[in-house]
Amino acid sequence: MSDRWYEKAVIYCLDVDTFADSNGDGCGDFRGLMGRLDYLSRLGVTCIWLNPIHPTPNRDDGYDVSDFYNVDPRFGNLGDFAELLHQAGNRGIKVIIDLVVNHTSDQHPWFQSARESPDSPYRDWFVWSETAPSDRHQGMVFPGEQATTWTKDRKAGLWYYHRFYKFQPDLNINNPEVREEIKKICSFWLQLGVAGFRMDAVPFIIEQTEPGNPDSPKDLDFLSDLRQHVQWRKGDTVLLAEANVEPAELTKFFSDAGGSSSRIHMLFDFMLNTRLMLALARENPEGIVDALQDTPKLPDGGQWATFLRNHDEVDLSRLTADQRAEVFAKFGPDENMQLYGRGIRRRLATMLGGDRRHLELAYSLQFSLRGTPVLRYGDEIGMGDDLAQDGRNAIRTPMQWSLLPNGGFSTAKPKDLVRPVISGGDYGFEKVNVTLQRHDPQSLLSWFERMIRTLKECPEVGSGTCKHVDVPVPEGVLVHRADDATGTMVFVHNLCNNPGVVDLSSLAEDAEFPNDVLADQEYAEPGALDKLDVAGYGYRWIRLRRQL
Ligand code: NOJ
């Protein structure tokens, strides 16, 4: 049986600054988060992924780091962070942090020194060009907010490369000193006790940028090198990469030539994410079936991280223009809901019109499909978004804890909050908050607790295989199964609003004593599996077999 912790984890992603403010200054902090660890523990979370925690000018929500060896003073100090790691560990919760080393902030002392003089020891830590690169109007990640990928620095008299905003100069991965520094950064945080890293922008970290070449070579071997390094420092360290690349490219991020995973352990499953969105919009699971069938087999130890929403826009760039238009029409019809021409800046609850059955269906799918589930803070209570905020900040509003002022997030004056709390309407803290839902066994929060508890009794989900079960089904219904040495689960999900009946009698020989372990409602016993009812937007998790 696999004992790789990340295959059985439930990951919860949060921004410290919008989670819980302990000192009333309007910004969330480590002490505030510490006070909420019991909440996360009860929810069933086993790993917290913290969005960037370092000092930052904060022009990209912390993804513009100005010191990799410290924490943002708004959150507390390194002592508070070490205490957080200890307290989380006491509850069996691991902590991973964002590792943002594709670029620094332009305020980072390395960049400030580099631009100062050709003799600076940091000059070659960044990527320069003497002339204006011909591809400077290509490859922008934030169209509309970012004009180019190269900008002329007046002090240096040179052009510098920035895959993202112009205040985020790219580090030069070709420089061995930069590689060593990245390893040193990892060592530092591992020494403090983090369990691993969510690596930001991995395809760009390994890009060996050549001015004028929009398709510069990539050095994937750096990932092997980094993996060896972190694993030597701490054997069960996990690298979880953000790499939204073509399916054919994916396996290279896990290993060089098959065998077992020797590079990144986990990749966010962007392909499945996009297909899930399409399937939910169409109320038809075909896209998910394709994703389950098309995606390459992972090397041993390689794992997907499965998500519905994260801290960025829903990225629909890998859909065809027609498919994208369909998802926009359903989930983000107003221009104000869309971003960068490819995405939607909304939470799932608002995209699904607050329909509780539809929400349960969506999360039941996410958590039962392949990989390790990643949940964004606030989604467990169905928080909404604030479209009055700029860009991606719409989905980065403070956590809604209670009916207290500012939703219990902070005692500061509303004008001093890091971002306004959503108030009023269907998604305001007055209606959507943890305290109300904690007292209600029928709430979405209570459902999440039950669902995650059940998931923990199904170890084959996550560490086992996940396959589409190809039987005739009513339109809208998806059947998939999870198998490993411990047993077999089968899942029936109805993505549309019409009830259906499914015949799974062909699985009878794998079924010892089939029974529902989680469902949207009480159904008749599965019996011979030949007449399984499933309600509109309904779902059934059926245990077929248990080995040990
Ligand atoms: C990806 C992160 O998810 C996003 O939030 C950030 O803006 C970019 N990388 C740049 O670091």
Offer a quick outline of the entry.
27% of the residues lie in helices and 16% in strands.
Written account of the structure:
The protein is α/β, with parallel strands linked by helices. The chain has three domains: 5-104 and 176-453, TIM Barrel; 109-161, Oligo-1,6-glucosidase, Domain 2 (Oligo-1,6-glucosidase, domain 2, Alpha-Beta Complex); 465-546, Golgi alpha-mannosidase II (Immunoglobulin-like). 27% of the residues lie in helices and 16% in strands. The chain contains 16 helices and 21 strands. The chain has helices at residues 30-34, 37-43, 78-90, 109-116, 176-192, 202-205, 221-233, 247-254, 270-282, 286-294, 321-331, 348-351, 356-368, 434-438, 444-456, 460-463, and strands at residues 11-14, 47-50, 94-99, 128-129, 150-153, 158-161, 196-199, 238-241, 266-268, 303-307, 314-315, 338-339, 343-344, 372-376, 465-468, 477-484, 487-494, 500-502, 515-519, 532-534, 539-546. The strands form five sheets. The protein has an eight-stranded parallel beta barrel, surrounded by five helices. A five-stranded antiparallel sheet has the order 15-16-17-21-19. The longest helix is centred in the middle third of the chain and has 17 residues, at 176-192. The radius of gyration is 23 Å and the shape is globular. The mean pLDDT is 97.
